[in-house]
Amino acid sequence: VWVLHDEDQTRARIAVNTIAGGFSGGGVSSNARKKYARSVTHEIYLVGNTPSSPVPDISFTTKDGQGVFPHDDDPLVIQVQILNCDVKRVLIDSGSSADVMYWEAFKAMQLAEEQLQPYVGTLVRFSGEQVEVMIYTTLLTTFGEEENAKTFKVRYLVVKTPFTSYNIIIGRPAFNALGAVLSTLYLSMKYPLDNGGVGTIKGDQLLARRCYESSLKIQHKIPSGNAGYRSGCPTNQEGVNMVDSEDMDPREEFQDRRFNPIEELEQIQIGVEPHQTTNLGRELLPTDKARIVKILKENVDLFAWKPSDMPDIDESVITHKLSISPKIKPVSQRKRKVGEERRAAITEEVTKLKEASFIEEIKYPSWLANVVMVKKANGKWRMCVDFTDLNKACPKDPYPLPNIDRLIDGASRYKMLSFMDAYSSYNQIKMNPADAPHTTFMSNTCNYHYNVMPFGLKNAGATYQRLMGRVFSEQIGKNLEVYIDDMVIKTTEKGEHDQDLADILKSVRRYNMRLNPAKCSFGVQAEIFLGFMLTHRGIEANPEKCQAIIDMRSPSSIKEVQQLIGRIAALSRFLSCSGEKAFHFFSSLRKNERFIWAPQCEEAFKQLKEFLASPPILTRPMPGKILYLYLAVSDRAMSSVLVQMVEEEEKLIYFVSRTLRGAEARYQRIEHLSLALVVIARKLRQYFQSHKVVVKTDFPIKNVLRKPDLARR
User: Fold this and answer.
1) Which InterPro entries match (predicted)?
2) Is the pTM above the cut of 0.90?
């Protein structure tokens, strides 16, 4: 494809590529492809010969669009039959020169690997990136069902990649062999049948959007050294390859914004040994301090200063089960080399785990994983285990984790708080004895498996949250909020805090849990919790995060702009019109353009710093009170703020903003407002369902929302 500006005929032409490679274009070798390219001008084809069988006329009418929700750019995703398998998530891509099957789909169909043939070549994506292809297979593929069915052999290049939203991509070879005509508007495909009729395949629009959404998700938390793909990825009931971003500890998203004291703390001794100390707020009244210290000393056995102080939670209460799919073959990873510093750290950590009886040696394991050493901020090493393969073989536990906004709202505007952290939280839960041998990892000299639930397992966070829901079933939402192993005790009146603390510690004792005294702080009035500062005034922005942006120099690369945008996203609840403020930053990230930090970017950056110097204080909504929503839209972004009237004063609750995407920028102003209301109602669903919300606007949004078919959006 060639792009040429009409106003400048002398400008150099720019090549715009598509996905290329495979058996098309003359073959694999460069000589064959050159010969094929020259044949257009050197070979003579006879015109006017009558085909052996008449080809029916194929056309599309508005009837073909029935059942298709109006759209601008949904892809065509269909289902095909290969042998005895119904394969969903098949993308029709007329820009691809090859028919591609992903390795996960091949394995999920339980096809014999003897059907694979060697292939030497590469695929070139539209970005120019080359994907090495080693094998291909030829399979009978059926398009359509019953009277619309058409079956022929398709030659698939089998691509091994760890992440994909589709099982198969049908390119031009199969598309032309089918004789298909495509309508992306009506999401359907028609093709001639052997009986002279016309077959039709309708795309699955809902599945297409799910695939597109999945393809845009950022894959993260993948340990280094595991870039290559290993077989055995399970599929869900929709026939899609399961790739989860929660394979590791779900708390990792908040590692840098879990609770952290703002006010000054003092260490107090609560045990007989000098090192048996914990943290107490310095602003406590002497009477409150005496009551809290008394309770802590009475319950000193509920704190652990070393692993041997920690008994396990009884197996009758909970154990962690893996539920490994029997269809997945065990994977034994190849041992990776480590440096001397990491090697010494592994030996030290394994010794600690053995002394605490967390691990034991095993021979002839079926599953075997490598150790991954991660350096912490304090310079020490954290030992993790690469359970990537094991996690792929386990179904996802759908136990719901708490909503962060609900937790923050629930813990704000209380006069006294106490924050508690479980000691080596996950390790307090035992592994199911039948699953323990599957958690084997390699040390420097031996192989060990865990007797307790280790960090890094796919569903460890869900298992621990389930335990916390059971332990604190009577307190959560009343005088306690919990996220995994982080607990915040909240009290309206300072003089009653010791009663709430004693009540919570009774539940801790009942289930034999242990707390980490070094990470606990009792009787404080302000503290960072999950990235927000909780005070008696309300919800405040984390001052460290604000200062991090204020101290930033002007970005000089795309990576630094991305870092800036990530920091803005962490503070988005406090930022008025953040989409508008960040618009110029997004503009500097446009692909295929040289990075430029324009003057408007610098001006927006200065304004952002000025705003963050004194960010607003938000509040939680009062039950039963009416909420008011203000909307603001521009040609670039839509924004809103949710407020509540308290004593004739508007109290801020939540800011929401985002830039306009694609065709949204071409909407009319009233459509922009309607879109903003829909987006915000989905984002703040918990507030809209619990309160009456009044939208402040002079535009007739109500009429537009009552008749969405008028705009076909």
Assistant:
1) DNA/RNA_pol_sf, Peptidase_aspartic_dom_sf, Rev_trsase/Diguanyl_cyclase, RNA-dir_DNA_polymerase, RT_dom, RT_RNaseH_2
2) no
